[in-house]
Write a structure and sequence with these properties.
Strand order of the largest sheet: 1-2-5-8-11-14-17-20-23-26-29-32-35-38-41-44
Structural class: mainly beta
Shape: rod-shaped
Number of helices: 3
Strand content: 35-45%
Length: about 550
């Protein structure tokens, strides 16, 4: 009866078993084992789908043109139009030119086969179709993944459609109508898909795809949405797309009726035929950015928030540079090709102008410079009025081409230069007063001679005047500048404003006395006194 059963089974299922070494004899006893399996009570011969139990094969065997159902395939090769149902394929097995359905494939290779409603892990798929399955930690080459879920795998030259893949690497492939999260996509095509928290490089994204919280480099983005904090950098091209709350940088191009909106930033890039709405365009020097055919929807003009200076609160003399910093409530751009903006300062008669020199990196602060000239004086430097800032035939505008409102805070009030800094402009040298006065007569013989300054003075090398060095600044002679020297001792008071000269001996009666000081002392900001002298006659 056994021989009749075996003859009946061969033409029905066409089962061929051979060793990998193609030996003509079954040295392992596996054929005997298979015979024993077929003889077991739970083996069936109902049609072409026999129900095999687990078969442990110690060598590598080839099963061709077979149906394997509810079994375990371990370290074996299945090929040539076989079918695997509700089974486990594991331990470096190979499935080729076959169909795998509702099974588990672990640590194996699938070649030119179809995998449906199965689980694949730690395996490799080549030239196959994976449909409605779960794959993880595997490599998929030259294959198609449909309606499946993939985790932490590598795809090369494959197609992923209507599927979800996370923590995976996708190279030279197509992602269509799918979702990728925390993934790396390189040199691939992305269509009608959602990309979240991933890296996209050297790829094309189009057909209404959505990219969120991702980094896109050297890629082309067509008809897509880039939002939620994504970065588009390194010479990418954005065409007919929406950039929403994202960053575009590093020589990328935004073109083809794209929209940049909702707090997005476009820096160091080219914007051509695009719409910028409630966004920031930075690094606005003409050489680093091109803006053409631009539509701006922001109609609110920028205005001045405050005025201050980088200089400390101190006194400054002629030749000093004073910076004036004007802060706006948003980024602005200055075009000074036809005229340079300036601020009129209250510096005396005539008043001076601080001229525009640069803009801060974020575009919200304009820097002006003023050089103090002789005759300028101010006890607390401020601009002349609220209208002192002028574009002076140039332009100051925001990135929506709105002309800035140039009204300044009221001088001396909150936000003004005078309120924020205490800058003193002093270009007037101290004045000198002699006693006895010049041309005085009948001066008492024992009188002290004094030289009084209008403000404290010091040596021109910025050192302090003292009793020990003051004598060198004084000349005291009989008759005139060519006369005989008169010995004396001089002292300066604690305020450094009065020099007292005591002749060594009482002066003679009817003696003409010449007293002088050179241009050798200055005030605290470096204004040097003019040399001066006086001549008087004793009684």
């Amino acid at each position: 009866m056994k021989n009749i059963y075996f003859i009946f089974l061969i033409p029905i299922i066409g089962l061929t078993i051979s060793s990998c070494a193609n030996s003509k004899e079954d040295t392992s006893g596996a054929l005997t084992q298979m015979d024993q399996v077929l003889d077991q009570p739970n083996s069936t011969d109902d049609g072409i789908n026999p129900d095999f139990p687990t078969v442990t094969i110690s060598s590598c065997y080839l099963l061709n043109n077979s149906t394997i159902d509810n079994s375990t395939i371990d370290n074996s090769t299945i090929s040539d139009n076989s079918s695997i149902y509700d089974s486990t394929v594991k331990n470096c097995s190979t499935v080729s030119f076959s169909q795998v359905r509702s099974s588990t494939v672990d640590n194996s290779t699938i070649i030119r086969s179809k995998v449906d409603n199965s689980t694949i892990s730690y395996s490799r798929s080549d030239n196959s179709t994976i449909d409605n399955s779960t794959a993880s930690k595997s490599r998929v080459d030259n294959s198609t993944l449909y309606y499946s879920t993939d985790d932490n795998s590598t795809f090369d030259n494959s197609t992923v459609r209507f599927s979800t893949t996370c923590f995976s690497k996708i190279y030279n492939s197509t992602l269509d109508n799918s979702t990728a999260c925390y993934a790396t996509l390189d040199n691939s095509t992305i269509r009608l898909s959602v990309i979240d928290n991933s890296t996209i490089s050297n790829s094309t994204t189009d057909n209404n795809s959505t990219i969120k919280k991702s980094t896109i480099t050297s890629s082309t983005i067509n008809s897509s949405i880039v939002d939620n904090g994504s970065n588009v950098c390194q010479q990418s091209i954005i065409d007919n797309s929406t950039i929403d709350n994202a960053t575009v940088c590093n020589n990328s191009t935004v073109t083809g009726n794209s929209t940049v909106k909702n707090s997005s930033s476009v820096c160091n890039s080219t914007i051509d035929n695009a719409t910028i709405d409630n966004a920031t365009v930075c690094n606005s020097t003409v050489s680093n950015r091109t803006i053409q055919n631009l539509t701006m929807s922001d109609s609110v003009a920028p205005n001045v928030s405050s005025v201050s200076s980088d200089n400390s609160s101190a006194s400054y003399s002629a030749g000093s540079n004073i910076s004036i910093n004007v802060t706006f409530n948003e980024s602005v751009f200055v075009d000074n090709s036809t005229g340079n903006p300036r601020i009129e300062l209250e510096t005396g008669d005539p008043d001076g102008f601080a001229n525009y020199i640069s803009t801060s990196d974020n575009g919200s602060v304009l820097y002006f410079i003023y050089t103090v000239v002789s005759g300028d004086n101010s006890t607390d430097l401020d601009y002349k009025s609220t209208s002192s800032l002028s574009a002076n035939s140039g332009t100051i505008r925001d990135n929506s081409s709105n002309d800035a409102t140039l009204t300044l805070p009221s001088p001396g009030f909150s936000g003004s230069l005078g309120a924020n800094k205490a800058i003193v402009i002093d270009t007037t040298a101290p004045t000198v007063t002699f006693s006895p006065a010049n041309s005085a007569t009948g001066v008492a013989l024992g009188v002290d001679i004094t030289i009084t300054f209008s403000e404290a003075v010091r040596n021109t090398d910025d050192s302090e005047l003292t009793d020990s060095n003051i004598d060198s600044h004084i000349t005291l002679k009989k008759i005139n500048v060519s006369g005989v020297n008169i010995s004396f001792d001089a002292a300066i008071d604690g305020d450094k404003k009065v020099i007292t000269i005591n002749p060594a001996k009482n002066l003679s009666s009817s003696q003409a006395v010449y007293v002088a000081i050179g241009a050798t002392v200055e005030d605290s900001v470096g204004n040097v006194i003019a040399a001066d002298n006086a001549t008087f006659t004793t009684q």
